[in-house]
Amino acid sequence: MSHIKHSTETTASAPTHCLAFDFGAGSGRAMLGRLDADGLALEEVHRFETATVVDDGQLCWDLDALQRELEAGLRAAQARGPLDAIGIDSWGVDFGLLDAEGQVLAPPLHYRNGHGSRGVARGVLSLEAMHRRTGAQPLELNTVFQLIELAARRPERLAAADRLLLMADLLAAHLTGRPGHEYTLATTSGLFDTVRGDWHYELIDELGLPRRLFRPVLAPGEVWGTLRPALRGGDGRATPVVAVGAHDTASAVAGLDLAPDEAFLILGSWSLLGVETSTPTRDTHTLVHRFGNEGGVCGTHRLITNINGLYLIQTLRDAWRRRHGECPTFSEITAAAQAARSTGLPASVRIDPTDHRFFAPEDMMAAIDDFLNEHGGPRPAALGEYALAVYRGLADQIAAGVTTLEQVFGRRIEAIHVSGGGSQDGILCECISEAAGKPLRHGVVEASAYGNVLMQLIGLGAIPDLRAARALLGGSRLRQKA
């Protein structure tokens, strides 16, 4: 693994400035990290919504808009002074295809578009076979199932493609002009062998996918490239772009000072529950209980499961706005849920977040009504009751996951270490702690951004390893943009 050495402008005694781009499925942010004698500080310099677009009748990510926001965040950071490094993390599984000239052939498809489940339904590869061979989570939205559907629906697009890049890879290529694959992101694809640590080329061949799409991967901490001349600041500095834990979950877990007996829980659009491990876990238990393996930073792995998350509250708010012409804030929704809870709303008013109705509902309120009607629960009468049904369901699924970690995988869980935007949601955290019977320990909210910056600092040689990096988190501080 190559590391960037400090220049004369960035000595051990001088501050080190790292720009972390954290692209989430709902929103993104540019966070400027500063390491000095006082510790590590993080400042938000740019925040934006993650834009989507409809192309060819399919729900896609608006890559042009994402690249514009990337450049806006870069300019905002450069205006504050020279940068020593840049890193990018994003959600996993989604990708873009590039031709031989490096041009993106079409907007990247959104994982909630449904094409992944259509890929599974084609029967070319089962969830079980994919998990058995790669160790990845058995999820219909995995890259491999998206590709199976694309190969059937638009074979000419695959034929024209020279390389496949996942989302953070696409954005890093935009900054540097150099296409590449980052390791932690690759492990979300369902085409990467987490035991061997390389693409599963035998599976790729069996599926008839071109090998040229999948090139060697970069490890977190390696240098991706430097800023293209057109994107350099007024000082002309060729700032290095460092491969961080490009999967946002990898960065988030890197940004938590986890104890050995803690599970991590990242509460965002998804609820991501798991434990950090030194080796992958792949057996019949992982398949049955829908756990899988993802690569982490500095030789770590994650035994993890995906549970639907605050996306459900976001879609509930959208449904309420369409019906009632008012758009409550998230704090108003949580307050309404707390009020409904205090009235003793029947315990049967709860959903199962794994039910197919809640993957991409057109009307979340109608989906909840339909679910409760089918399962004999009373229909909610107010916004808080709908929200509480969601919170209870999420807490139930998280608690079941904790039980699985303990009873099936033999992991002692003394506490749940939570982070992400949902860690600030008081009623959600109360419901989780009660359902799981475990205390919650709150890490930094912006864990992905912190983990992103920490890996840049390791790549720069400013910090020796992950243990030393996490030791900085106790004194870290977050400054919001004015």
Explain what this protein looks like in three dimensions.
α2 crosses α4 (about 145-155) and α9 (about 250-255) packs across α16 (about 445-460). The radius of gyration is 22 Å and the shape is globular. Helices cover about 35% and strands about 20% of the residues. The protein is an alpha/beta fold. The strands form 7 sheets. Strands 17-18-16-15-19-20 form a 6-stranded mixed beta sheet, with helices on both faces. The chain folds into 2 domains: about 15-250 and about 445-480, 2-Layer Sandwich (Nucleotidyltransferase, domain 5), CATH 3.30.420; about 260-440, Nucleotidyltransferase, domain 5 (2-Layer Sandwich), CATH 3.30.420.40. One of its GO terms (molecular function) is ATP binding. Pfam families: FGGY_C, FGGY_N. One of its GO terms (biological process) is rhamnose catabolic process. Belongs to the FGGY kinase family. This is Rhamnulokinase.
Q: Which fold name is given in CATH as the topology of the largest domain?
A: Nucleotidyltransferase, domain 5
Number of strands: 21
Strand order of the largest sheet: 17-18-16-15-19-20
Number of helices: 17
Radius of gyration: 22 Å
CATH class of the largest domain: Alpha Beta
Shape: globular
Terminal Cα span: 38 Å
Helix content: 25-40%
- Please outline the major beta sheet: 6 strands, mixed
Instruction: Please give the CATH architecture of the largest domain.
Output: 2-Layer Sandwich
Strand content: 15-25%
- Model regions low in confidence, pLDDT < 50 over at least 5 residues: 1-12
CATH superfamily of the largest domain: ATPase, nucleotide binding domain
GO biological process, one term: rhamnose catabolic process
Pfam families: FGGY_C (PF02782), FGGY_N (PF00370)
Family: Belongs to the FGGY kinase family.
Domain Carbohydrate kinase FGGY N-terminal: 19-255
